[in-house]
Design brief:
Layout (H helix, E strand, L loop, with lengths): L10 H7 L11 E2 L5 H6 L8 H7 L1 H14 L3 E3 L7 H6 L5 H13 L5 E6 L14 H15 L5 E7 L2 H14 L4 E5 L13 H10 L4 E5 L4 H8 L3 H7 L2 E5 L5 E4 L2 E4 L3 H5 L2 H7 L3 E2 L7 H13 L14 E3 L4 E3 L9 E2 L12 E5 L2 H10 L7 E5 L1 H10 L9
Parallel strand pairs: 1-10, 2-3, 3-4, 4-5, 5-6, 6-7, 7-10, 13-14, 14-15
Antiparallel strand pairs: 8-9, 11-12
Helix pairs in contact: 3-6, 4-14, 6-7, 7-8, 15-16
Length: 399
């Protein structure tokens, strides 16, 4: 079983640094391993809808999650990954609230530890690269989160491929619940999402929305994941947001028995102390991992003594879009510019944009993702707040 928050003398010092992480949860914190690949290994046919199959075979999920708790997981993720309305409807399921409640109740019924509501991407792309509106996607996540809220201790919004949808997800969850929200993106070896978002920009942006923990899951093995997360540690410490690593069991390889991952539990477990030493304190496993992998993580966590001090970086004057970060120099602010077509040719590190009417708001909503640099806002404060709500990055209102 997992530790209690006061099981080590240094537990509170980590909570003081990562102050947005729930005080009632232990830190370091151990999540579970894979659900999808574990279900398939236990007999779930390939290609079926897990959210339909699991209620018909609840004993299979219960056995998987009992093993995770026994191996040392502080929490398991309820089997609600594809439980948002848009995904369920693609499978001909139109009982979103009832199905999510039933699925989360299976994990809650084990009574063995913390349970997270698991939320996945909707499969929709938001404007200007798709036809989905921010409020539309936020509502989808709000619906799912509201149905999960009575059964879970926190939410994990995971396997995200774009910062834009992740922002909508967090906004939707927080509109219906005060429980902690963790967010993870899936990235390549360079640390970019499929949409080209940088992890630092995502961290800065999502921290503004009040997440408790941030990181990556799936796509890559632990070595590549460590490489992309380690540079974020000083920023995360400055923001008070704990970092999450939930890597795959290495990379998939074809074999006579089918697809296998190239790291066994012992090889995977060798990375757990490295994550902890780097300052990444929320650990678990994704595709290809099982309870044996989680046991190795728990062993590393129980043997770990945190560093006396973690370097922090102040990000209060940083702004970003999805790909670039700039630092504001209050003594050398650029001249304000209008929210119009000339912004596409702007050549500074960041632009100070004047917002005075709804036309300015609409221009920035439609075009901010395509501007050549991050922006800072000035002008009508209420209108600027409308821009900030949907801005895909981090911006600041400047008096």
């Amino acid at each position: 079983m997992g530790r209690t928050p006061d099981s080590k003398e240094n537990a509170m010092s980590l909570h003081d640094i990562f102050y947005r992480f729930p005080k009632e949860f232990p830190l370091p914190f151990v999540l579970d391993g894979a659900t999808g690949t574990a279900l398939m290994a236990a007999g779930m046919p390939a290609g079926v809808c897990p959210e339909k199959w699991i209620p018909e075979h609840p004993e299979v999920l219960c056995e998987i999650q009992r093993r995770y708790y026994a191996a040392g997981s502080d929490a398991v993720l309820a089997p609600t990954f594809g439980g948002n309305r848009l995904v369920l409807e693609r499978h001909g399921l139109f009982d979103c609230a009832e199905r999510n409640a039933a699925l989360a109740s299976i994990s809650r019924g084990l009574g063995a530890g913390l349970v997270a509501g698991d939320l996945s991407p909707t499969g929709k792309f938001m404007r200007p690269f798709g036809d989905a509106e921010f409020d539309e996607i936020a509502k989808v996540y709000a619906e799912q989160a509201a149905s999960l809220d009575p059964y879970v201790d926190f939410f994990v919004c995971e396997t995200n491929i774009s910062l834009a949808e992740t922002r909508a997800a967090v906004t939707g969850i927080k509109s219906v619940s005060n429980k902690p929200v963790f967010a993870t993106l899936t990235v390549d070896k360079s640390g970019r999402t499929m949409s080209g978002d940088s992890l630092l920009c995502a961290l800065l942006s999502l921290a503004e929305l009040g997440i408790s923990a941030f990181g990556t899951n799936c796509s890559v093995g632990p070595g590549d994941m460590l490489n992309v997360l380690e540079p974020l540690v000083p920023f995360a410490a400055g923001l008070g947001v704990a970092l999450i690593a939930k890597p795959n069991a290495g990379m998939p390889q074809e074999s006579a028995e089918g697809k296998k991952f190239d790291l066994d539990a012992d090889s995977f477990g060798e990375y757990a102390p490295k994550f902890l030493e780097a300052g990444v304190y929320v650990l678990g496993g994704c595709c290809g991992t099982d309870d044996k992998y989680i046991k190795r993580i728990r062993e590393a966590v129980d043997a770990f003594e945190p560093l006396e001090e973690i370097p922090k970086k102040d990000s209060s004057l940083l702004v970003c879009n999805t790909k670039e970060v700039a630092e504001i120099d209050p003594a050398r602010l650029p001249e304000p510019v209008a929210a119009d077509e000339e912004l596409f040719d702007y050549e500074g590190e960041y632009a100070l944009v004047r917002v005075m009417g709804m036309g300015d708001v609409e221009f920035l909503r439609d075009n901010a993702a395509m501007l050549p640099c991050p922006i800072v806002l000035c002008g009508d404060r209420d209108l600027c707040e409308r821009v900030i709500r949907e801005y895909c990055g981090k911006t600041i209102y400047w008096e």
